[in-house]
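Researcher: Please predict.
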Amino acid sequence: MDILLLPFKAIWRLVTFIFELTGRLLALVIGVVLMIVGVLISFTVIGAILGIPLAIFGFLLTMRGLF
């Protein structure tokens, strides 16, 4: 019985892998963009209140996408 379900399990694993890879790539891109925006906002004193946490969040999101 298990041999009959093997093709379905293989397709399910392939789809899961593709979704995980897409999610990681999206997390990397959004993380880098947030880091850049956070650093650019941090050039002003008032913007530093928002920019530093934004850059830290972008860094953490990038690390989550990598590992």
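Model: The first helix runs from residue 2 to 41.
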